[in-house]
Each structure stands twice: as C-alpha cells, then as structure tokens.
C-alpha cells in the first residue's frame, strides 16, 4: 500500500468515528427549532472529513506513480512534535472547564507556538490572546453559542455554577 492510501484510510476511519460521535452530543431543551446547535458544526466537519478522505482514497488508487511507504520516510517524520501536540490537546481538554475557553485557548495556542519553536514571545501572546478573544466574541455574541467562562472566572466574579 502507498502512504497516501494508508493516510486516506486512517483519515476516513477517524472522520467516520468523529461523525458517529456527533450523534452522542446532547441538545439543549428546545434546541430542535434552532438553526445552530451543539451538533451543527461537528456534523459538517465529520461529513467534510469523510468526503475529503474518500476523494483522497480514490486519487491514491487512480494515481499511476506509486509512492511506497518506506522505513526512510517513517524515520523522516517528526513524531516527537506530533506526540507533544497530542498531549497538549489532552491537557487543553482537561483545563477547559476549570479555566474557561479564553484562558485555556490562550494557554493552548501559546504552548503550541512554543512547541513549533516560535521565538518571538510578543507575537505569540498577541496572536494567542486575539484569536482566543476573537473566537469567544464570534461564537458567543455573533452566533449565539453559549461558551462557559470557566470555574475560575465564575468564582472570581462570584457567579454561581
């Protein structure tokens, strides 16, 4: 098998599992009449992933030039950085509820840039903060998707959970 075929099959399996998992997301009461629910974006991401992976799979079978998966290619991959990002994503999932979306996303993006060996701390912080706050405002205010501010912010502001 070629590396494109293996990659396409892996991406197809991942996308199918992701799409299947979408139906486990609980809807808020009365959300059946809403245009956007918690399932909407993940549903379309899953469908897109399945379609793209099927297209890539077809292309890998049609392709005349065979690029065989070799040990040299596997050794050239930066698996250490990939592992660091997987650990970082797990950490991001664990800190989302206590710290909230904005603070957790700032930490995630900052550490991600540092893993990718970005040296300019000022640029890292400006991008991390602006992307986090921008997405929060877009989702919360423009699209009306509720995003919890986190247990830390709620306790500092005296809000009840």
TrEMBL record:
<keyword id="KW-0812">Transmembrane</keyword>
<feature type="transmembrane region" description="Helical">
    <location>
        <begin position="124"/>
        <end position="147"/>
    </location>
</feature>
<feature type="domain" description="DUF1468">
    <location>
        <begin position="6"/>
        <end position="146"/>
    </location>
</feature>
<keyword id="KW-0472">Membrane</keyword>
<protein>
    <submittedName>
        <fullName>Tripartite tricarboxylate transport protein TctABC, membrane-spanning subunit TctB</fullName>
    </submittedName>
</protein>
<feature type="transmembrane region" description="Helical">
    <location>
        <begin position="6"/>
        <end position="23"/>
    </location>
</feature>
<feature type="transmembrane region" description="Helical">
    <location>
        <begin position="43"/>
        <end position="62"/>
    </location>
</feature>
<dbReference type="Pfam" id="PF07331">
    <property type="entry name" value="TctB"/>
</dbReference>
<feature type="transmembrane region" description="Helical">
    <location>
        <begin position="82"/>
        <end position="115"/>
    </location>
</feature>
<dbReference type="InterPro" id="IPR009936">
    <property type="entry name" value="DUF1468"/>
</dbReference>
<keyword id="KW-1133">Transmembrane helix</keyword>
